[in-house]
Design a protein that fits this description.
The chain is an alpha/beta fold. It has 2 domains: 103 residues, Aspartate Aminotransferase, domain 1, CATH 3.90.1150; 243 residues, Type I PLP-dependent aspartate aminotransferase-like (Major domain) (Aspartate Aminotransferase, domain 2). The chain contains 13 helices and 15 strands.
Length: 357
């Protein structure tokens, strides 16, 4: 089988030692062996999220954690503000509307980050807002939203009356997202990005403020029931059958991130990799699409993007294309997780070769 190197912003490359952990014999999830693994994972996830709160693990894609962020903390008819600057901002809107929330969107031109002052104005215009939803990184455009600044505004304007909800699927483990320090109420991520795992796990954490909202939530929930999962996971188990092998792999990847490289070094590496690739891209006369580019991926404006993607894949580098109205207009190259400087030079040179042929 021909070997491709994944440079897509999910799924990303998986390190050999994590693959080895994934391939270990299965163990029973109601056993002490599993509990010991899971307890270690839970403690390391707290360090990843920079929180003292429980981090709940679901067997699902990141969208499952997004849905759980809605159904566990809100009530039908609640007024919420959604920052919509791409496909995943749209997803927040779609999930909220599915469960009967009253959604007020801040629409941001694709490729741009939200202006914190626009969030401030939306909060002043709309009374009794129960939640503000945003992406840490809008994966479809490669934009980093100013989460810390928006969090400050939400806290100053609304105090304990409004939850600040962050989709950190291409942010957590990529750059600094300080849940407790910044006043984020709900933070979530997925396994297939900076955590260097296959798809299949999502993680979510809720502040004490959010847990009070949870007691009043009237939206339907069964599998994505955080209260039920919190009770089970504090005992080292899950309410339902977990993705055992993925959790074993997660322990290994978290050891690499938290114990060995260290979060600050991981963040610095991602910034360096982004700089290397973007310097090469600009040297080819191409433009970066994102006006506030995130450290985890680079979005590149190319007229014949799908043709270039195909050529790059033929040379062994699998990159992502644009979504929806950006299809055929950009390519997206990831550098979050298991990548080094040589990988960026390689993919940059593959791009160069495809542009010249």
């Amino acid at each position: 089988m021909k070997k491709f190197t994944l440079f897509t912003p999910g799924p990303a490359e998986v390190p050999p030692r994590v693959l080895k952990a994934l391939s270990e014999p299965i163990i029973h999830h109601r056993s002490q062996d599993f509990r010991e693994i899971f307890f270690e994972v839970r403690e390391k996830l707290k360090k990843l999220f920079k929180t003292k709160q429980d981090v709940i693990v679901f067997a699902s894609s990141g969208t499952g954690a997004m849905e759980s962020a809605v159904v566990n903390f809100f009530c039908k008819g609640d007024k919420v503000i959604v920052v919509n600057g791409g496909k995943f901002g749209e997803r927040w809107t779609q999930i909220c509307k599915t469960y009967g929330l009253d959604v007020h969107e801040i629409k941001v031109e694709w490729g741009y980050a939200v202006e914190p002052d626009d969030v401030k104005k939306a909060l002043e215009k709309n009374g009794n807002v129960k939640g503000v939803f945003i992406q840490g990184c809008e994966t479809s455009t490669g934009v980093e939203h100013p989460v810390k600044d928006v969090a400050k505004i939400v806290r100053e304007k609304r105090g304990d009356d409004t939850l600040f909800v962050v989709d950190g699927i291409t942010a957590v483990g990529v750059f600094d997202v300080d849940m407790d320090g910044w006043g984020i109420d709900i933070l979530l991520t997925g396994s297939q990005k900076a955590l260097m795992l296959p798809p299949g796990l999502s993680m979510i954490s809720a502040s004490e403020r959010a847990l009070k909202f949870m007691e009043k939530s009237d939206l339907p929930k069964f599998y994505f029931n955080i209260k039920r999962e919190m009770k089970a996971q504090r005992e080292g188990e899950t309410a339902y059958t977990p993705a055992i092998s993925l959790i074993k792999g997660l322990r290994e990847s978290l050891r690499m991130i938290i114990d060995e490289e260290g979060l600050d070094n991981v963040f610095a590496r991602h910034r360096k990799l982004a700089s290397i690739l973007r310097n090469m891209v600009e040297g080819l006369g191409l433009k970066i699409f994102a006006k506030r580019p995130a450290p985890g991926l680079t979005t590149i404006e190319i007229d014949n993007a799908e043709e270039i993607r195909k050529k790059m894949r033929e040379l062994g580098a699998w990159v992502a294309g644009g979504q929806d109205k950006l299809k055929g207009k950009i390519i997206r190259i990831a550098h979050m997780g298991y990548y080094n400087e040589g990988d960026m030079i390689y993919v940059g040179n593959v791009l160069k070769a495809c542009l010249q042929n």
